[in-house]
Write a structure and sequence with these properties.
heterodimer; A: about 750 residues; alpha/beta; eight-stranded mixed beta sheet; 36 strands; B: about 375 residues; nine-stranded mixed beta sheet; 11 helices; 15 strands
Chain lengths: ~750, ~375
């Protein structure tokens, strides 16, 4: 029983005996309540609403309510549940207490009371699947109990809209109407044909007057903050709209009269009177009384009558031969827009960078300037993934054009065949993200830029990140070594089968550059014994390419790795470290393995006009081997790669002293047992990117690392052999420190 | 949130407190359920409590308090609790007690039998050992008893709390609750005969949650004379806030004697002091009657008395509060434990609408699948 002081309103409809209820769900509810299987509910009465045939079940419900309440819900509330005769709509639930509070998640009907509770977010078709009387009662009980604490609406849940959507929409350019100001002006509005029966308008700023096919006058109004969650019915006339906006302290009629008078006074062309008005209202919402503004609803209303007739309905003019005249005394107070129909439009904004980021779950948008080199299959898809998340300000460099075979695995579509991939990608990116261009294209070969040289130079200089997806080692080396820019270099590619993906990332300070990270990647392949990784399927490649340009790879793999790499890309640029990432999957397997390797810091040693690039890994390895053999000398061969163009020798690994070597305290003769097969194995795994580059041997303690006469002879021996390939000779002597001799014996450098 | 659970056990008391910090306290225990009797709607208390401990993966209460030695507050303790004074009560199925709270009378009373005697022996054992016990009030007789056991009072003083003091070990800041002791008074125990009811343990618990205090008056079986005395003393010390309540565990199973000596025809009129006490209820406060359903008519000598209930209902209504009877909640035909949630919104009585699926998986299915016997 409720409090004696509680007064309930008499619900409408005639009282009927509960046995005469006919609607199945109502019968179910009544019998459940009367059977006593549901605790805390007491049957009151049933009613039938004669004009609709709907039936109401009225009952008292006893709910959990604390002593303190945010909304004054009582322990016992009287509820009327009205069931639709055809079960076409969800039961309408009213709270019958006269002073039941207005709270979030209520519908506002044409009457203030009884208050109508909004129980369900789901559509009735979904609810029907599991509707039972007990769950219905529980839902009401939970609604009341949570509302008493003001917790029905989760703290993390967004605020409720003020109106329910009608399905008609207008798409506004984001940021067109800022919160602070009211803008009255002309909009270019395009109506989109669709088969939904709903009106879809796309509005944009007109670029020129001749742009405007159909003129719309826009009026934006900002309202005062109001409590969210009281969902109102759609206003259907100007008068109803005026009433609705009154709760936000907006005087719509006055604003419209002002706007229309202004249009008349400006004496624009008469075409203006055939234009339609769109009122866009910005309505700030608050979560609870006393809390600050949290979010806003924006709604638009399209006026069915053109301006000339609207003015008549507003009582500001009469038409004289179709031309507005004036009314003496300002306006006719009796005309308040009862006859002007309005169509409620949900407002959607075009996709801004920020919105795209938010929709992708990114707290902070990535706004780095990124130059991407290569938008082939992988590059194009990865690029669009990043653009769709609002990430980056892009320059695209690619000189390729789209050909039909590309369509099997490219982000572009058939319309673009024959066009520049770079330009087409930029076009789609800029049409996906609204606002200033997010992408800018340069159709050029990065290695032979010809007339684009200055443009490319500038783009690279200004970049924060240079992203190489060119599948060209030459391009990668060029970007790593020959481009003047502070930008961090990142390279990604698939292996020839498309089963594996590789991501090479420089550290932010560029202590270790991309070219040397590439070398460490090869070394990792050898260490991990990944014999399949760089081998190609079915045929031997003359090109020797270990990054695939065009072969048989499934779009599944491209899409999968484009997704994985765009996610990885966003992740790696969040920290400053360099990394080597290898993802691999077996044919027909749905598992992907991920290996991350932290690169060693690069050490560059100048020897005459050559540079030796190596790292701690190798130097420590040599030290360790020397230590093991002391007091004898030991040695072995050096593995690496030679960049003839830039005169760089990369030294990353060693094959230690073969078992048939001769080791004495003051001399060393390297044997060769098993050496050739090991070198070949390394060649094979790395697709010849790593090969034999020279020899090393140790000196005993106290002898330093300077070359002895014997060492000079040995060096000459190496030099003769290397000359066959046009390579320089490299000899390293490892003592307490390491000496590098390269090209000519006098070209030496020391590492300490 | 903190939770207080009152169990439907007829005219008897048992109330469990689950603190938000995880500690569990039990106030009184009276297992009466007759399993063979389908008409006995009282809960199987021992099982309910065991199940609850199992759910929390523990076998003990941090505190078990017994307000006095009457059977309706201690019945079955010898069967279900793990007692330290003798190995007889020490199997793993039993409920362990970290700290036992008793009024001094429990230690001192003579010529006892059954559970009362078992509790006295346990309390005496723990007090002699000097751990796992708290005794309320310090009459001279307690000092004498201790001396008789060769123990100095000052060596046990830290285990004794007097009326007007806060029980050590519980603070609003750390445990989210403090207990203020109203009764027993020493002087009543010093007399030759010990009146158990008037010497019972009466506490005010103040629960803190989100800076909101919720006050719970735990009043054992107390008559209006003792209540009057407590009101007078509390007012004398100007500690009126110590008698404020949001949850009032009304005394003696809704007996009119906790209001007045006169029952009244349809409604008992409380004496002035009790009237004042009832007026101390907070907005939407809860009055809990640990009793059988209130009879609609008739004048049984035993509580609950409908006249007393009508009086409590009136005071509940005055504060827009609720008067709830344990054996009527949620309905007299199927009473269930009455759970009060205490959080930043004060006290609220749980009223769960139980849906089929969720309730069936919380109990065993009936026997099924046996062979057909021809």
């Amino acid at each position: 029983m409720g409090l004696l002081s509680d007064k309930y309103i008499n619900f409408y409809g005639e009282i009927i005996d509960y046995k005469n209820v006919t609607i199945p769900k109502a019968i179910g509810l009544v019998s459940s309540i009367n059977s006593g299987i549901i605790d805390f509910v007491t049957f009151v009465e049933c009613r039938r609403i004669s004009w609709s045939g709907n039936e109401a079940v009225i009952f008292d419900i006893n709910v959990k309510v604390g002593q303190e309440t945010v909304y004054d819900i009582h322990d016992v509330e009287r509820i009327a549940a009205v069931f639709d005769k055809e079960d076409a709509d969800k039961p309408t639930v009213y709270a019958l207490r006269e002073d039941f509070p207005r709270a979030p998640h209520q519908y506002v009907t044409d009457r203030e009371i009884p208050r109508c509770l909004c129980l369900y977010e789901e559509s009735y078709d979904e609810i029907k699947l599991s509707w039972t009387p007990t769950q219905f009662i529980k839902r009401i009980s939970d609604w009341l109990s949570l509302t008493s604490k003001g917790k029905l609406h989760g703290k993390d849940q967004p605020l409720e809209p003020l109106l329910s959507s009608t399905g008609n929409k207008i798409i506004l350019p984001h940021g067109l109407f800022s919160v602070e100001q009211e803008i009255k002006g002309i909009l270019k509005v395009e109506s989109i044909e669709n088969e939904t029966g709903k009106l879809i308008l796309i509005a944009d700023r007109p670029t020129a007057y001749s742009d405007i096919k159909s003129i719309h006058y826009a009026l934006t109004i900002v309202g005062k903050p109001q409590l969210h969650g009281i969902i109102r019915e759609e206003p259907k006339t100007l008068k109803e709209l005026d009433c609705f906006l009154a709760s936000a302290e907006i005087n719509l009629l006055t604003s419209l009269r002002d706007m229309l008078s202004e249009i008349r006074d400006k004496k624009l062309s008469t075409e203006v009177y055939d234009a339609h008005v769109i009122v866009i209202v910005y309505l700030p919402k608050i979560r609870e009384a006393g809390l600050p503004f949290e979010s806003a609803d924006t709604w638009a209303f399209w006026f069915a009558k053109p301006i000339k007739d609207l003015g008549v309905d507003l009582g500001i003019w009469e038409l004289n031969k179709g031309i507005p005249g004036t009314i003496i005394g300002g306006f006719d107070k009796n005309k308040n827009g009862e006859n002007s129909k309005v169509l409620q439009l949900s407002v959607t904004y075009s996709l801004s960078r920020q919105a795209a980021a938010v929709l992708n779950g990114l707290e902070n948008r990535i706004n780095d300037k990124i130059t991407i080199i290569g938008v082939g299959a992988l590059g194009s898809q990865l690029f669009m993934n990043l653009v769709r998340s609002g990430s980056g300000e892009w320059t695209i460099i690619d000189n390729d054009i789209l050909l039909p075979h590309n369509l099997a695995r490219h982000a572009l579509i058939g319309n673009d065949i024959g066009r520049s991939k770079a330009k087409s990608m930029a076009y789609w990116a800029n049409n996906t993200i609204h606002g200033g261009n997010i992408a800018h294209a340069i159709t050029a070969d990065i290695l032979n830029p010809s007339q684009h040289e200055t443009e490319i130079k500038k783009a690279l200089e200004e970049s924060d990140i240079i992203l190489d997806i060119s599948t060209s080692i030459a391009a990668e080396r060029y970007l790593a070594l020959d481009v003047q820019s502070r930008a961090r270099r990142i390279s990604m590619f698939l292996n020839p089968t498309g089963n594996d993906a590789v991501l090479l990332v420089e550290d932010k300070e560029r202590k270790t550059t991309l070219d040397f990270i590439e070398m460490q990647y090869y070394r990792s392949l050898v260490h991990m014994g990944l014999t399949e990784h760089l081998s190609s399927v079915g045929y031997i490649r003359y090109s020797n390419a270990c990054r695939d340009t065009s072969s048989i790879i499934s779009q599944d793999n491209i899409a999968m790795y484009a997704a994985l790499l765009s996610k990885a890309f966003r992740s790696v640029i969040q920290n400053d470290n360099g990394s080597i990432n290898i993802w691999s999957t077996k044919d027909n397997s749905l598992n992907i393995d991920h290996t991350v390797i932290e690169p060693y810091e690069m050490e560059r040693i100048s020897c005459g006009d050559w540079i030796v690039c190596t790292d701690r890994y190798l130097l420590d390895r040599l030290k360790e081997l020397r230590q093991q053999r002391l007091s004898n000398e030991t040695g072995g061969v050096l593995i690496g790669s030679i960049d003839i163009l830039r005169k760089i020798v990369y030294v990353v690994d060693t094959i230690p002293s073969p078992p048939d070597s001769k080791e004495w305290p003051t001399a060393y003769i390297r044997g060769y047992k098993g050496l050739q097969s090991e070198v070949e194995r390394i060649n094979r795994i790395t697709s010849n990117r790593l090969e034999y580059v020279g020899e090393w041997h140790s000196h005993p303690e106290g002898y330093g690392c300077k070359a002895s006469p014997d060492d000079s002879k040995a060096f000459m021996w190496i030099a003769n052999y290397m000359a066959i390939d046009g390579y320089p000779a490299l000899m390293m002597i490892c003592a307490e420190r390491t000496a590098f001799y390269i090209g000519h014996i006098e070209n030496c450098g020391f590492q300490t | 949130m903190h939770k207080i659970t009152f169990y439907p056990i007829g005219n008897a008391d048992c109330c469990k407190i689950d603190l938000d910090c995880g500690k569990k306290l039990l106030f009184d225990f009276a297992h009466y359920k007759v399993m063979e009797d389908d008409g006995d709607l009282r809960i199987n208390l021992a099982k309910a409590i065991k199940d609850d401990l199992d759910k929390s993966d523990r076998d003990y209460f941090d505190v078990v308090a017994f307000s006095h030695l009457d059977s309706d507050h201690i019945n079955g303790l010898g069967d279900y609790f793990y007692l330290e004074h003798t190995g007889k009560y020490q199997d793993d199925e039993r409920i362990k007690i970290n700290e036992l709270w008793v009024p001094a009378a429990v230690i001192l009373e003579g010529s006892l039998s059954g559970d009362a005697r078992i509790l006295r022996q346990e309390a005496r054992h723990r007090l002699k050992e000097g751990k796992g016990i708290r005794v309320f009030s310090r009459p001279d007789a307690l000092k004498e008893w201790l001396e008789g056991e060769g123990i100095k009072l000052k060596d046990r003083e830290h285990l004794i709390t007097n009326a007007g003091q806060i029980v050590p070990g519980f603070t609003k800041e750390n445990e989210g609750v403090e207990f203020f002791v109203h009764s027993p008074f020493s002087k009543e125990v010093d007399g030759k005969t010990v009146d158990r009811n008037s010497a019972s343990l009466i506490l005010q618990a103040t629960f803190a949650f989100d800076d909101i205090d919720t006050k719970f008056l735990y009043i054992g079986d107390t008559d209006w004379e003792t209540l009057t005395e407590i009101v007078d003393i509390t007012k004398y010390y100007k500690r009126e806030e110590r008698l404020k309540w949001d949850i009032y565990d009304l005394p003696h199973h809704c007996s009119y004697l906790a209001l007045n000596s006169e029952k009244g025809k349809d409604k008992t009129t409380p004496v002035d002091a009790v009237k004042w006490l009832l007026q101390q209820g907070g907005n939407k406060g809860k009055l809990i009657s640990c009793s059988k359903p209130i009879p609609s008519n008739g004048d049984d000598a035993q509580p609950p008395h409908r006249q007393a209930a009508n009086c409590y209902k009136e005071y509940a209504s005055n504060i827009k509060g609720e008067f709830v009877v344990t054996m009527e909640h949620p309905k007299a035909t199927a009473p269930k434990p009455l759970i009060i949630e205490i959080d930043g919104f004060g006290a609220a009585i749980q009223k769960n609408i139980v849906t089929g699926g969720s309730s069936i998986v919380s109990k065993p299915s009936p026997r099924a699948g046996g062979p057909i016997v021809r």
